[in-house]
User: Fold these one by one.
Assistant:
Number 1:
Amino acid sequence: MSKRDLLTPIGITLGFIMVMFGILTNSGLDGVASFIQVSSIVIVLGGLAAALLVNFNLSEIKLSFRVVREAFKKNDRSIGELIQLFVGLSERARREGLLALEAELEEVEDPYIKKGILLAVDGIEPEVINDILSAEITALEERHYRGRTIIEKAGEYAPAWGMIGTLIGLVLMLQSLTDPETLGPKMAVALLTTLYGTLLANLVFLPMAGKLANKTDQEIFAKQVIIEGVIGVQSGQNPKILEEKLSAFLSDEDKSAAEAAENDDEELVKETANEA
């Protein structure tokens, strides 16, 4: 299940606030207007759009919009929850048989888990299940890479178009050397395109691409847990053994938290029994 990831918009907003802070502390409110140049914005954004249209086809560009949305979402299902899910499925499968797991699928939202359990219920060989689910991981990784590549390229092109705008401004400035009073303002305008391009690249595009890469790694890691869980359930592994096996995917911090939660549950059970 996905929820909104507030860190992405907070980080971008904080970055722009820091830039505004630097402007305001040195030039005040009157100086803000000098950092807004419509022609520079048009050069950077228009040039960036043109470069992406040349580099990618329309379907890839459409894919990038879906990929960008993923940077503002987060998956709230932890590895610990996945482990407990498969331990529960394993207990029911050993108690009632694999066919009983079909009823459990109504409460499972993840289509990847559903597919794996259905393959297990159908009696598909573990090696074949592993191949099928691993092929989906490979396809997912490729789709994410293609979408992320556009964001990475935007991060590369934005500073370049900023520099192009600066060069245009410098050429125009050199053509008016006979009027020294205009050199300073024209130089400032010329440098603004570099500022815009660099800011977009290092505050928006490249950090977003990095977050998308991290999300892909996390999703692949979770799917590897799911594969091991599905095969463990199908093979009829003891729930405790399956839990120990899947716990290898947990970090030391997650293991410590899980042990603490388990100890708390045991103490609660003892207290309840003593009160009774």
Note: The mean pLDDT is 84.
Number 2:
Amino acid sequence: MSLQRSLSLSGLTVLATGCLLGSIALSAPQALATPDGGPVVTTPAEAPLPPHPRGTVLSFSVCDEAQAKADTLSIHLSARSEGASPTIVQQHLNQLVSNAMAILKDQPDVKSTAESYAVGQEYAPHDKRNWIARQTLVLSSQNRDGLLALAEKLQKLGLSIDDMQWSLNPEAYAKLEQQARLGALKKLRQQAEEDATALGQTLLGLERIHIGSQSMDDFEPHPRMSPMLMMAEARSAATPPPESTAEMQTVRVTVSAQARLAQQDQTP
């Protein structure tokens, strides 16, 4: 092979290699040179993000309530005895509670329980110490007038009224709770549709629905009334009978959920 032919072949090889490198450079990402001569950084072309496959999630809650007049009256009474000896005050207290329970046993429509029992010392003027014994009795009934008359008898016996509370019986409370729950669920769907419309979207469905449970103690259906504490030495046959008026009771139920929304053009 002649020298001229060899140079021609080498030139064709270089030309072909240059075309190949040029095609690679055109398809490569854009190169950005750093000012300090550091390594070359490449940035790929950015593509728009697709819409969220599950749509928009809206978390919210609603509540509803139902009311009824209280139907059960509870009266807390205290039996109290004091003296110089713990044994004597306990004997006197036990006799007083026994006499009270004897009156209560003939009252079929009254629920009565003897609760906390405590004995301790109390400091009096001139550093005098007395022993105090005390026990609590709780009476409850739906017969308001009969229960108040019974409390008056116990006052004359020597007991004092600490407070009176109104409440709903368990059946009435459950009925109000169901009414409030159904009302909250209806509001839940309506609110979700209104919110979706306000956002220019369509409601796909409701998820993670939670109904707030409320116990009698959490809701506090027993509103505490003004204490009616009467010391034994201040009582007499002329003491006026106790009075109490039933109040309205409110049961509230809260429902929370997640609403799945989507743009109208993405609705299946």
Note: The first helix runs from residue 3 to 27.
